[in-house]
Amino acid sequence: MGWLDDQFEKRARLLARKTGRRSFLARSAGLLIGGAAVVPLLPVARASGNGSRVAGPDEGIPGAEGDPKSCDYWRHCAIDGSLCACCGGSATACPPGSEMAPVTWIGTCQNPKDGKDYIISYNDCCGVGICGRCVCNRNEGERPEYHLYRNNDINWCAGAKSQSYHCSVAIVVGQATEAQPEK
Amino acid sequence: MISRITVGFACTLMVSFTLSANAERPIEEAYVLHCSGCHGLDGAGIPSLVPSLRELAGLLDHDDGRAYLVRVPGVAQAPLPDRELAALLNWVMEQLSGVPNFAPYTSDEIGHWRSQPLRDPLKSRPEI
After folding, report:
1. Which residue segment(s) compose the domain that A164 sits in?
2. N or C: chain B end with fewer CB closer than 10 Å?
């Protein structure tokens, strides 16, 4: 039976190298319930239920996760600042020691994998000196400062304990039926 | 951004550019896209910075409260069509604030009150 064990181990290792656990779980869930799990649902209802004010880490977005340290990453289409993934955090989480601002600006980016638009929350991480690494300035759908709520030049650390800017994240909040009207 | 401008502002209902008149964007999506950045996904706001959208029922007890909610700058100056703005406000009142027996805003009502934006909403609020 040793050869069977060897074959099984080789296959398992090959599978592990080629696939991620997240993608496996997402696809499995999608198959089980007809694909509904693949598209993240808007978090308004559950947020209003549990008191969460900002989005949590996003899961189940179709396509490769991409490189969160790259300015070209699709969800960075309107970000302006240091990418938190280069500062000890990730595309969706602040680096240790910094605080995610509760006020943010919201836009949409198109995922090239499925051609769909997703709502992105560009939260700033605050309370630590500026990171300065992986500075990325893309402005798709961004508007001048007289449209505060669509402007990325503003310090969105408002509401945080410290308004010292450190870096920015790009959290997928949900799928949009269409791109934001500014685009 | 490195040259960020510090802004401490109290957002009211943050809405943005006009959706096409025939757009069928779900109201929840419109809320996330246009309001949640400041008021939060749960509408709770931030004490002393952003008003809560979960406690608006009390404003309706005052004669001017219903108009006030439309005349605040973030709502009145929103380039959303009256019809979509009415739908969004009605959703906020019913779903986030849970106002019992709420009489929905009509497009005409929104159009009327937003044409008279408040110049100093922070001054007007305590009066209400």
Report:
1. 2-51+66-175
2. C
In angstroms, how far is CA A56 from the centroid of its own chain?
9
Which positions 95-124 of A are in contact with B (Cβ < 8 Å)?
102-106, 108, 119, 121
**ipTM greater than cut 0.90:** no
Least Cα distance to A136 among A97, A170, A100, A101 occurs for: A170
Pairing of strands A124-126, A116-122: unpaired
Judged by a CB distance cut-off of 8 A, whether residue A178 touches chain B is yes
pLDDT for res A66: 77
Is A124 one of the annotated active-site residues of the chain?
Answer: yes
User: Is residue A57 assigned to a domain?
Assistant: no
Q: Residue A29: which CATH number? A: 2.60.30.10
Instruction: Look up the pTM and report it.
Output: 0.74
DSSP letter for A95, please.
P
Q: Which residues pair with A155 in a beta bridge?
A: B6
